[in-house]
């Protein structure tokens, strides 16, 4: 009888974890401000960040300041406003072009008259992007698309993306894929295998880039996707992060033990 297949030379890949925020790390809420983040989650993310040697970043449509507020006191590497904003792992912030900020402000202003007649809509004017939310008035979806199309008409540097009950204007050339690629060129992400987890259409660029770089895209929930793997829900994302952290730290623990006590390490290995 043949021996069971083993691969003694194999080592666990060093992972770089990238995750979306809304609908992936936290449940979708009725309004952007109503999202709930438990202390248990911030503690878990803090630990995950350490376990992955700080190669752990959030790539989101939200502003970086928003993510900092929700995940306080954590200050993770974050790409915000669909990649238009980015804070590296060393804490440095990439400045946004003044022209992009000014154009985003002008787009938000152009949408204001429509909001006056539809107070159920929510406008998020971000630095570098604009989101028009219609979750509380879903019958207005088509009108929202038209209003946003008109609002960006004078700003050819902006394109629209359609997320969960939201139409967003973001600067062309920025998306979650370009953000992931940029992180992967820097420490501590460089040379690692990227994993990106997300739930929305705006996450597709990041799935694509993660896979192009030899990693895996993991899509939460149903819907067409380029991601090679799927995950059921937010609770499963938390469990997956815990599991990945566990297998990542295990060989490291064995190595440390070997340095401290080679005899004990040898005994426990058998
Ligand atoms: O890239 P993400 O982290 O998923 O952010 C995408 C957008 O998320 C937020 O809006 C979404 O979540 C809200 C709270 O659950 C929900 O009310 C809304 O309908 C969703 O579209 C956020 O407000 C946007 O700025 C992000 O772009």
From TrEMBL:
Recite the UniProt keywords alphabetically. Answer: Hydrolase, Magnesium, Metal-binding
Membrane-crossing residues? none
- What superkingdom heads the lineage? Bacteria
Q: Per UniProt, what is one Pfam family of this protein?
A: Trehalose_PPase
Pathway in which the depicted protein is active = Glycan biosynthesis; trehalose biosynthesis
Q: What is its EC number?
A: 3.1.3.12
For this protein, the record's InterPro entries field holds: HAD-like_sf, HAD-SF_hydro_IIB, HAD_sf, OTSB-like, Trehalose_PPase
The record's catalysed reaction(s) read:
alpha,alpha-trehalose 6-phosphate + H2O = alpha,alpha-trehalose + phosphate
Q: What class of enzyme is it?
A: hydrolase
Question: According to its UniProt entry, what is the function of this protein?
Answer: Removes the phosphate from trehalose 6-phosphate to produce free trehalose.
Concerning its family, UniProt says:
Belongs to the trehalose phosphatase family.
The name under which this protein is listed is Trehalose 6-phosphate phosphatase
Per the UniProt record, the source organism is Devosia lucknowensis
């Amino acid at each position: 009888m043949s021996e069971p297949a083993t691969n003694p030379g194999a080592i666990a890949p060093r992972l770089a974890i990238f995750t979306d925020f809304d609908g992936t790390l936290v449940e979708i809420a009725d309004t952007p401000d109503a999202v709930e983040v438990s202390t248990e989650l911030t503690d878990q993310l803090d630990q995950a960040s350490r376990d992955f040697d700080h190669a752990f970043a959030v790539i989101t449509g939200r502003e970086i300041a928003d993510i900092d507020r929700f995940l306080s006191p954590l200050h993770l590497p974050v790409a915000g406003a669909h990649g238009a904003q980015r804070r590296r792992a060393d804490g440095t912030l990439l400045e946004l072009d003044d022209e992009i900020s000014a154009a985003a402000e002008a787009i938000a202003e152009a949408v204001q008259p429509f909001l006056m007649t539809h107070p159920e809509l929510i406008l998020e004017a971000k630095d570098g992007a604009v989101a028009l939310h219609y979750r509380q008035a879903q019958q207005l979806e088509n009108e929202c698309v038209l209003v946003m199309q008109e609002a960006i008409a004078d700003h050819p540097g902006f394109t629209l993306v359609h997320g969960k009950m939201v139409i967003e204007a973001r600067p062309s050339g920025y998306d979650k894929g370009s953000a992931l690629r940029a992180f992967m060129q820097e420490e501590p992400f460089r040379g690692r295998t990227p994993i990106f987890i997300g739930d929305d259409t705006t996450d597709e660029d990041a799935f694509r880039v993660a896979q192009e770089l030899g990693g895996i895209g993991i899509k939460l929930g149903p819907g067409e996707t380029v991601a090679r793997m799927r995950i059921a829900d937010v609770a499963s994302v938390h469990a997956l992060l815990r599991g990945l952290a566990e297998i990542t730290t295990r060989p490291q623990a064995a190595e440390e033990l070997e340095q401290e006590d080679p005899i004990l390490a040898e005994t426990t290995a058998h």
